[in-house]
Specification:
single chain, 252 residues, alpha/beta, Purple Acid Phosphatase, chain A, domain 2, six-stranded mixed β-sheet, five-stranded mixed β-sheet, 5 helices, 21% strand, binds fe (ii) ion
Amino acid sequence: MLIAQISDTHLALDTPDADRRRADFAAVVADINALDPAPDLIVHSGDIVHNGLAEEYAEARAILERAQAPVYAMAGNKDERGNLSAAFSADGYFDPGSDFIQYAVEGHPVRLVMLDTVSISSNKGDFCARRIEELHRLIGADPVRPVAVFLHHPPFEVLVGPERMHFESQEVMSRLCDALRQSGRVSALFCGHVHRPTEGHVGDIPVTVATAVATTLRKGDYPAQMEGRPIYYLHRFDPSGGATTETRVAGG
Ligand SMILES: [Fe+2]
């Protein structure tokens, strides 16, 4: 099973780099379309747009509609649930009536569980008791197949960059990590948010953090050949649920 992950496209209409962000987003979709073998699906792990506006989602939607593989959208802190839901709910993979955009992707050797870590009061991650309950329900729905979990905010202390904690409190992050660990079923975690590539662990579960597709918003150091070229990721799963990740440079 092959999953393409794109993250933090931050599509905007009126920033000086708006055209660049649009071009970066379009370039990764074109690159994914040219992959052989093609991925089974594409996950956008949040911050699809920059201001949560319906007009921004219309543009994001138009770019993602060019993708040949099915696309699964998630919410990041810059997203606005109502407008994201309006733009993507017609695809039918999440419940537009729910307060949170949390869902499972079925029909593959590895089940994907997509979490909504958005807070209404800050850019940091939140995960309330209702979402914990839903997480248990989503993971427990199939007792056999391994589970990979996607969430926008990294649920571990990120040691690179100015900020270590990306959840509102240690308590909130621990509650989420305990739920992920205790399930005993999660084989890998995938995030975005920090705009730099990094890795971590939640107990024994490896966490891979994707950098931003938007080249103007990337943080950290990148090899010269990546300059100005957007980055995305290909996650390959073996049947036992183990994953290896390849970093892809669009157009490379
Ligand atoms: Fe972001």
